[in-house]
């Protein structure tokens, strides 16, 4: 399991240009083992998004114990990535396809003053959010739905039906936190939902509008996408 601050990454997935978490992990693995590895992640987080509970797996010869591997990787990884734990798993385990649920958090800060300590880790909205109406709007998201209105247009139409297990909004100090648990998250889904609920929380839309957008199955009705910095992959459940 890994955690990382995504502020200076172009996302998880390795690409030709831009610093990525996957590339840094593979580089560290090569330094430790002397071999190149294919790495599978539970979720491909966006550029600027973070993780507290990312899960990744790869195949190795087992010569290095999980405990030693954790220490060796952390000695070589940059400061914004850390391996929290490692363990041996069955040969048929796959970080992505074996996962049953994933939990994401989106965090807003709704005060006049911009954040300093949490900059890059939340969306600053300089006016109070109505958490109760946001919670009412979020209820429409629970269940199995076609997420066309909220996901990226690049997602194949045949893959857009997913089950949302829970959708909760709560205030914790200066922060308002949206937590979503689903079997899988399509590209752009959480940030689009977070954008919609922000409009509800600011009184720009009624709470039932969230469900109306969902039912429309029309990306042209999509709300403003929330900034990536407020998004964190919290947990992968197997």
Class computed from helices, strands and strand pairing: alpha+beta
Succession of helices and strands: EHEEEHEEEHEEEHHE
Query: What does the oligomeric state look like here?
Result: single chain
Could you tell me the radius of gyration in angstroms?
Answer: 19 Å
DSSP E strands, number: 11
| The CATH architecture of the largest domain | 2-Layer Sandwich
The outline comes out as globular
Mean pLDDT: 96
Task: Report the span from N to C terminus.
Answer: 13 Å
Q: How is the biggest beta sheet arranged? A: 9 strands, mixed
Strand residues, percent: 15-25%
Number of helices: 5
CATH class of the largest domain: Alpha Beta
| CATH-derived topology of the largest domain | Alpha-Beta Plaits
